[in-house]
Amino acid sequence: MPKHVADELQAVSLADLIGRQPELVHIRVRRHGVLLILESGPKDDPVAHARFRRLGAHIWRLEMSTHTGGWEATPFRGQIEILLEALITDFPWTLTPIA
User: Fold this and answer.
1) With a threshold of 0.70, does the pTM exceed it?
2) Which domain holds residue 65?
């Protein structure tokens, strides 16, 4: 089964959705293979907040950064717009700026 790579258009679209949220001006989107990663801080030492793993044409899984620098898969799967809304609404502390 071929992997669905996260493409540049999806990264730009996600960045646009995030840019509409004034409280998330510190968040940027980085594309890496099947992942769209939400991060902040300096580009040479980024702070990872969350990421979306592409599972299919329009299906993504939300994964959260752990305090040890790893990743924890969540049971949340679906369209990226819905997952982003859930992340902002239900888990806002994960997107808090880290000084």
Assistant:
1) yes
2) 8-95
